[in-house]
Amino acid sequence: MVFNVETQQNVEVSKKFPCEKPLIEQLEIMERYTSTHHSYCGKSKEEREMACLRVLYPVLFRKIQSGDLFAGRLDFLPIGFGTVTSLGGVGHYCVFRKLRQFQETLPQEERFRVDKLYDYWLDNDLKTIYNKEVLNSDTLGMFIDTDYPMIATARLSGMMLDFPKLLDNGIGGLRRLIEGKLSGNGDNEFYKAGLECLDLFVDCAEALRNDAQNQMKDSGEEDRSRLQRISSSLEVIKEQPPHSFHEALQLFWLYSLLAGVINYGRLDDFLGPYLAADLQEGRLTEEEAYDLIHCLWTMIENRRTTVNGRVIVGGKGRKHPREADIFLHLAMKVCKNCRYVEPQFTLRFDKDTSEQIWDEALDAIGSGATYPTLYNDDVEVPAVSWGMRLDREAAEQYVPFGCTEFVIQGQSTGTPNICINLLKILTIYMNSGVDPFDGKRKDGGVPILPLEEYKTFEQFFDGYKQLLDYYLDMAVKAQYRSYEVMNESVSFLFTSLLMNDCIERGKAVLDGGIRYLGGTNETYGNINASDSLWAIKDLVFERKKYTLRQLEDAVLANFEGYEDIRQDCLDCDKYGNDLDTADNMANELYEYVAKGVRDRGIEIGMQYFLIVISNNQLNSDWGNKTAASPDGRLSAMYMNPANNPQGGANKSGPTAMLNSLARFDARYHAGSVQNIKFSPRMFNENRDIIKALFRTYFDRGGSHLMVTIVDRGQLEDAMVHPEKYPDLIVRVAGFSAVFVNLPRNIQEELLSRVLYD
Amino acid sequence: MIKVSNIERFAINDGPGIRTVVFLQSCPLNCPWCANPETRPLRSDKTKDMTVERILEIVLRDKDYYDNSGGGLTLSGGEATMQTREIYPLLEKARKEGLTVAIETCGEASEYSIRTLLPLVDIWLFDLKHTDAAVLKQYTGANLDVVLRNLKLVTEYNASAVVLRMPCIPGFNMDDKRFEDSFRLAVELGVKRVDLLPYHTLALSKYKEMGLDYPYQGYQALGKSDLEKYRMMGLSYGLDIKL
């Protein structure tokens, strides 16, 4: 299997800060990492991980920046250790594309040193090891190679740690927990390495404290007290549980960095009590609290993960709802005022959510912040409970990460390591197994009948389902194998220590430590595929206006010379208009795929494996490599975003679109992104109407909504005059971005979406 | 069968709350600025003949949105009362389903139509285009006596169910006297709410599509500020003025 190791591995819209260290020092760190990794060959994976982590930390911490109210900024190099593709890479990683770019910046005479590293990591980069084993030449490609109908990767995205455990115990308490376990189990490598992890945490806190102390020497009075607070908090959290909001924030943040997690969980619930106590005791003014949260927002934004940075507030199952709401209200203000694309500020709500919270949320959204995104607990909690096979108490701890995928905070994995393009598979199926886009066979050996053989729509649909089955079989195996491959070489020690039940079981997260081994499968082109199926059913089998062959000829010609057929295809009922015809078809395909994925996950032994209709910008990028389709979509055109209609296909107003969106039973997915776009006039001058609109949608079973506010003509103008729109934020699908930073193909897809004005 | 030009869901400017507007075919007037020229004849090539059940099926899909927003069904046109016999069973059934019903009318309707519809209509969106009979006749073909008779009928039945709508058309009715007369009339009849509808040119593209010349050339669309003076005037009459 040949693949290009320099393929871009993830969506990256927000540009990261360049590493603070001089180039040669960066190179030396990567060399040190590489030689350490090499010399620990033959030792346990835990020892190797610890030794490698010690190469990276604390050296990769940046200086405490002026204005930072707590400490912790990290750099990443093209070689290192991590959990996700959005920051650094996965396990012991090398991001070859970035390593090449790094090489270009070196003086000519030093470049050969990079070649050595490059070669070493070809055999040792975790993701490459996985790719070599799992990918094949025609049906399963690597992230993100859009020539394939399905892509797979190894990563551990979306870990939401049990931060309450960290805050309750402190580092010292965790240490005692592990020591207690170790005393009865002296050679447990996980425990031994876990203790070393905590030592490393202390070293990092000490290094940052030294930095603060050093900087204080030449600082003015105000900066000195800022740095003094940082220094004191760092001293406390080396051992003790936090006593103040600042200490809690510092502990939480530093641990997040070391664990490499980029989604943060229910901050209101676990930080709220510290905040509330400080406010009540007069240790903190509301303004100071606001500034601290604002700083947290800045620190999260500055990590620039593009599609992560989830902060969740509100909802069922909070242990400290009163204190949590204090955090929530301040966070709403911060979110509205700072207009960052990250954190992805997320509001969980239910029927008991107060009018005040709703008003704050709609104000923030109406200001163009695109946040908070809205999750309906009255629907999601029972759905998660059923879909993931959990009791209600566990289900109440669901949290969306990344583009929307759900995990159970501190208790489950949910990484989406598979993406499937349902539309591409349909175009392959209709063309006897050959992808019309590049002429390559991608049927995986599944027998496909000539189109003339299908006498009924059901026969035709069944054939498509058989091809889908081939891909779904592959999906679950590739997902499961990704966990095994990761577990063979790493323990994700920092993450494991705060995931239940790793400490209790003495096992790392993917080694049997995690309470609920879950996973997700991203699906794309859902609606183009179902609208295509409806057009086929309608035009070929019901109205008998064309034969399947005629339709396929038109599609293969990209409708050139078949404009009348394309018009008929476009005129067929489309999902998003509250029509039973197209909506039922969409639901049938959805349930087939969703249940197919779920059943396979249970069978292979996972707690859950569920589809997510999440969509970063892959609907556009993958659409650009997908042939024309019977819904009237042209070759290389973007596909529909997430669970929404194809841009412009919904012509019956927002109630009709929302009715279509609310149709899918939320039990079968672990997150489904629902976008809606209003003009400021419509949204802000008709607030009561908008409230009623949203409420009704949620009452009807709508699980989620995220809202972009733009003026008519604004996006068009921004494409011509980007300099005029430096802070025009849009919701892409599962992430927000500054519109003018997006590539043109993505901008075009966003523009195609209906604006309710 | 009801002759329908179009059905618009999530209409928020034709009565309170979230509504579905059924635009009916045919109108007795001939306003040169008409925004829905396609609805004027009894039938055009896009006209749909729809049963009461079919219309209701579409309207009821948003029932819960109406309930949560105080909205409902609005019949518009064309002139909805031109199909009184046809819409009567629709309104009866709509009310049975718990929908509130609004009707937009230009007031040019038979007494029979108005009396027939009175018990079935919750909100009358009643157009008063002018108070000068000759000018009204000349521009629109409407008969002011008929319009006023009908306006009295509906206000006598239930004045609080009536919203007086005043299209504000430059070159036609933008003089103080017309506004004064209209506001005074509203007060006399016990109407509380008056909507000022600024002239717009959104229909130009429709005319073009239909291959027609737009007959009311030479005027710019009005903005809210153009009507501020009349809004203030209306407020001084103690009316609830909406723009």
Brief synopsis:
The complex is a heterodimer of chains A (757) and B (243). Chain A is an alpha/beta fold.
Q: Which architecture of chain B does the CATH hierarchy give at level 2?
A: Alpha-Beta Barrel
Principal-axis shape of chain A: globular
Indicate the mean pLDDT of chain B. 96
Fraction of residues in β-strands of chain B: 15-25%
Biggest interface reads: A-B, 17 and 14 residues
Count of beta strands of chain A: 17
> What is the topology, as strand order, of the major beta sheet of chain A?
3-4-10-11-12-13
Mean pLDDT of chain A: 96
Would you state the CATH class of chain B?
Alpha Beta
Overall CATH architecture of the largest domain in chain A = Alpha-Beta Barrel
Distance between the termini of chain B: 35 Å
Tally of extended strands of chain B? Answer: 9
Q: Can you tell me the CATH superfamily of chain B?
A: Aldolase class I
Assembly annotation: heterodimer
In order across it, which strands form the biggest sheet of chain B?
A: 3-1-2-4-5-6-7-8-9
What string gives the helices and strands of chain B in order?
Answer: EEEHHEHEHEHHEHEHHE
- Integer tally of domains of chain A: 4
Q: Could you name the CATH topology of chain B? A: TIM Barrel
User: Would you tell me which CATH topology of the largest domain in chain A applies?
Assistant: Anaerobic Ribonucleotide-triphosphate Reductase Large Chain
Written overview of the protein:
The complex is a heterodimer of chains A (757) and B (243). In chain A, 51% of the residues lie in helices and 10% in strands. Chain A is of the alpha/beta class. Chain A has 4 domains: 23-134, no CATH class; 136-157 and 402-673, Anaerobic Ribonucleotide-triphosphate Reductase Large Chain (Alpha-Beta Barrel); 162-257, no CATH class; 264-396 and 674-757, no CATH class. In chain A, helix 1 (23-39) packs parallel to helix 4 (111-122), helix 7 packs antiparallel against helix 8 (221-237) and helix 12 (321-338) packs parallel to helix 13. The two termini of chain A are 51 Å apart. In chain A, 59% of the residues are buried. With 243 residues, chain B is of the alpha/beta class. Chain B has one domain (2-242): TIM Barrel. Helices cover 36% and strands 21% of the residues of chain B. A 9-stranded mixed β-sheet of chain B has the order 3-1-2-4-5-6-7-8-9. In chain B, a hairpin with a 7-residue loop joins strand 1 (2-11) and strand 2 (19-24). In chain B, helix 1 packs across helix 3 (84-96). The longest helix of chain B is centred in the middle third of the chain and has 15 residues, at 144-158. Chain B starts with a strand and ends with a strand. The A-B interface holds A 578, 652-656, 659, 686, 688-689, 692-693, 695-696, 699-700, 756 and B 8-10, 12, 17-18, 61-62, 64-65, 67-69, 71.
